Amino acid sequence: MTDATPVQHPLAGHGWTSELDELFTPHREAGLLPGRIARVDRGRCDVITADPDPGTGALRTLRADTSAVSDPDPVRCPCTGDWAAVDPTGPLPVLRALLPRSTAIVRTNASRRSEGQVLAANVDTVLIAVSLASDPDLGRVERFLALAWESGAQPLVVLTKADLAGDAEHIREDVEAAAPGATVLVVSAATGENIDVLAACLGSTTALIGQSGAGKSTLTNALAGAEVMAVQHVRDSDGKGRHTTTTRELIPLPGGGVLIDTPGLRGVGLYGGAEGLAGAFSDIEELAARCRFDDCMHRTEPGCAVSAALEDGTLPHRRMDSYLKLQRENAWMEARSDARVAAERRRRWKTVQKSVRDAGVIRRR
Asked: What is the CATH number of the domain that holds 234?
């Protein structure tokens, strides 16, 4: 007698795993359905679930209420890519719980406050789109890389619009020097150059990030094999684009897996990015580990491996300046976050004290 062949879960193509299935057990026993959030807007979301008839193996998209899983902390709110427990009963389905995230791309809030904003959750690969229509800003590429490494996913730098570049190979070498540990590909959605290679490099869930005008929507269409995203032209004056993508959307890919397309990012602030900096600047971290003194500041100390690399040109001054800038920014943000947490604790304690006084437990003498 042979064992029966296990039936693949309908959501497997969207990233569902045996580990997630085990985590979902108590929710399944409560009569809830697993689903993956494809889009979030105004207290509602589109969530992809399996058809209740197990024999069909089909998927369906439900419009669900997210209020039951909302949180004062924006980082804890539902986001595209999250796995959720869905209650399909009633006139409007409701998200009852979110499963723990394996990874999350988090930047500082666009308002520059100390709060974070999740761009995408449960991502395996962060695809950083950089246009070759003009010379790439290596400092910005390093910033995106720090964001990607901090998420826990694997970064992949894609130099788009190769058909508009005069010397794409030379630019690729410069970007590779600024992206240790990450693959750098040159592609053209217009000609199809290396699109098949890129598709083979993607994980089960890929998040696409980059500036407006980097060709993200065109690249999404090329990978999806269909016109799933609108495309707008960049300005001839400065090569910048308008926000074609206005919200984060989860798009199934024909070869399996999903792509999360995100709006163009004007600002990329790090949010608790110590590990991200270590990943993006692993070459400098390795040099620092060879310094004579553990607390070396890489200035005038004897036996400083970083200073030696700067002097002999092995380490570009531009890259070191970028590293120090992001370190300062990260330290400032961590200090702001600590102050915000302390202020929130004080606010909650005052609320508790007031409620106790109102109840007459504490009386003034």
From this structure: 3.40.50.300
Angle between helices 168-177 and 138-151 (to 10 degrees): 50
Do 130 and 86 have their domain in common? no
166's CB contacts (< 8 A; 6+ apart) are none
Measured from the Cβ of residue 245, the count of other Cβ atoms closer than 10 Å reads 18
Q: What is the pLDDT of residues 339-363, one digit of tens each?
A: 555 555 566 555 655 554 555 544 4
Q: Tell me which of 240, 261, 282 is where a domain ends.
A: 261
SS3 sequence, 181-235? Answer: CCEEEECECCCCECHHHHHHHCCCEEEEEECCCCCHHHHHHHHHCCCCCCCCCCC
What the block records as the tokens of 69 is: 């899983």
Domain assignment of residue 146, yes or no: yes
Task: Please work out, in degrees rounded to the nearest 5, the angle formed at the alpha carbon of residue 236 by the alpha carbons of 232 and 237.
Answer: 130
Asked if 163 and 204 sit in the same domain, the reply is yes
Are 108 and 256 within one domain?
A: yes
State how far the alpha carbon of 16 is from the alpha carbons of 10, 27, 36, 148, 193, in Å.
8, 15, 9, 22, 31
Contact 85, 95 (CB under 8 A): yes
Instruction: Specify whether 24 is located in the same domain as 117.
Output: no
In this structure, what DSSP letter does residue 270 have?
B
Q: Would the pTM of this model clear 0.90, i.e. be above it?
A: no
Q: Which residues contact 261 (CB under 8 A, 6 or more apart)?
A: 208, 216, 217, 220, 229, 245, 248, 249, 251
C-alpha dist (Å) from residue 242 to 139, 158, 292: 22, 20, 50
Reported as a single tens digit per residue, the pLDDT across 97-151 is 999 999 999 988 655 556 788 999 999 999 999 999 989 999 999 999 999 999 9
